UniProtKB/TrEMBL annotation:
<dbReference type="GO" id="GO:0102559">
    <property type="term" value="F:peptide chain release factor N(5)-glutamine methyltransferase activity"/>
</dbReference>
<dbReference type="InterPro" id="IPR002052">
    <property type="entry name" value="DNA_methylase_N6_adenine_CS"/>
</dbReference>
<keyword id="KW-0949">S-adenosyl-L-methionine</keyword>
<protein>
    <recommendedName>
        <fullName>peptide chain release factor N(5)-glutamine methyltransferase</fullName>
        <ecNumber>2.1.1.297</ecNumber>
    </recommendedName>
</protein>
<dbReference type="GO" id="GO:0005739">
    <property type="term" value="C:mitochondrion"/>
</dbReference>
<dbReference type="Pfam" id="PF05175">
    <property type="entry name" value="MTS"/>
</dbReference>
<dbReference type="InterPro" id="IPR004556">
    <property type="entry name" value="HemK-like"/>
</dbReference>
<keyword id="KW-0489">Methyltransferase</keyword>
<dbReference type="InterPro" id="IPR029063">
    <property type="entry name" value="SAM-dependent_MTases_sf"/>
</dbReference>
<keyword id="KW-0808">Transferase</keyword>
<dbReference type="GO" id="GO:0003676">
    <property type="term" value="F:nucleic acid binding"/>
</dbReference>
<dbReference type="InterPro" id="IPR007848">
    <property type="entry name" value="Small_mtfrase_dom"/>
</dbReference>
<feature type="domain" description="Methyltransferase small">
    <location>
        <begin position="117"/>
        <end position="215"/>
    </location>
</feature>
<dbReference type="InterPro" id="IPR050320">
    <property type="entry name" value="N5-glutamine_MTase"/>
</dbReference>
<dbReference type="GO" id="GO:0032259">
    <property type="term" value="P:methylation"/>
</dbReference>
Length: 315
């Protein structure tokens, strides 16, 4: 009767476990980064003799094992750093997956893209056909929103605006990584310092600082110790930059164009957005939709620029 080899219990990743992995073939060798260093050479030497591997094969495999040891040590140091300093794991590995963007680069203090923002981009892509358009990404940070749209809408151009030079440098790097830097422009400075032509953009997207100042002070150490607080703090009610985005949308959007903006769902900030529009931009902007996130909280607002007939009717 044929014996089926079973992997040894991994209470200790020592020589016995590694011998089993070598005997079972290369597909099992993914366990090696978790093994103890002292038994690598013993396991390799034993199996090389048993399987009569050539010297070249043995040398190549030994080199692979040494690299695995170094990688496991680096990983252990990264985990230790995270435990001691509350470092977000995305900063440790330097990348994150965002929809179709694999290995998107991230580094402190630029904000790490969140699943909520990923959902907003997904909804934007679902709601608009990929036709030629000009998009404005306000408070662009790492550039993840604008880059994700540019990679899917091949005939579009995206203007990125952010107050942080370091964030914009990262956005340029990511744009080049995905081959869309030729269709993106990068504007460094506060929103209020920019001049936007009237009726120029088909769409505006934004994930602005929207957290009230008092709430920012209570954020977790993984956020406060490593991410840019200025990219999170939206003022007393979280509306300082949100209002600026709405002001820009009232001017820069083409008639019928859409603003997609992430807001502070925990405080139902979408209601403050509606109040501000009603007070200052009632003839130019119309709240179109409030979109919930995966927790069924009102996370995104969709605002449409009025067409001329609507603007006249609302006067």
């Amino acid at each position: 009767e044929r014996r089926v080899s079973q992997m040894p219990r991994p209470s200790r990743w020592g020589a016995r476990t590694q011998l089993w992995a070598f005997a079972r073939g290369s597909r099992q060798r993914r366990i090696f980064p978790y093994c103890t260093g002292k038994s690598f050479l013993l396991a390799h030497r034993y199996t090389a003799v048993q399987r009569k591997e050539t010297l070249d094969e043995e040398t190549a495999c030994l080199r692979w094992l040494k690299e695995s040891i170094r990688e496991s040590r680096r990983l252990r140091e990264a985990v230790r750093s995270r435990a001691l300093r509350w470092t977000p794991y995305q900063y440790l590995v330097g990348q994150v997956d965002f929809l179709h963007l694999k290995d998107f680069c991230v580094r402190p203090p630029t904000l790490i893209p969140r699943p909520e923002t990923e959902l907003m981009v997904e909804r934007i892509l679902e709601s608009r056909p990929p036709t030629r358009r000009l998009v404005l990404d306000l408070c662009s940070g790492s550039g993840v929103i604008g880059i994700a749209l540019a990679t899917e809408w091949a005939d579009s151009r995206v203007d990125l605006v952010d107050a942080s030079e370091r964030a914009m440098s990262l956005a340029r790097e990511n744009a080049g990584r995905y081959g869309v830097d030729g269709r993106l422009s990068f504007l460094v400075g506060a929103i209020g310092d920019q001049e936007f032509a009237e009726n120029s953009y088909d769409m505006i997207v934004s994930n602005p600082p929207y957290i009230p100042t008092a709430t920012v002070e209570n954020l977790s150490r993984t956020v406060k110790n490593h991410e840019d607080i200025l990219a999170l703090d939206g003022g007393v009610r979280g509306m300082d930059i949100v209002r600026q985005v709405l002001d820009v949308a009232s001017v820069a959007l083409k008639p019928g164009g859409l603003l997609w903006m992430e807001v502070y769902a925990e405080a139902e900030q979408h209601r403050l957005v509606e109040e501000y529009i009603a007070r200052y931009h009632a003839t130019r902007l119309h709240p179109q939709e409030v979109v919930s996130d995966l927790r069924d909280m009102p996370r995104f607002v969709v605002v449409r620029k009025a067409v001329p007939d609507e603007a006249q009717r609302d006067r």
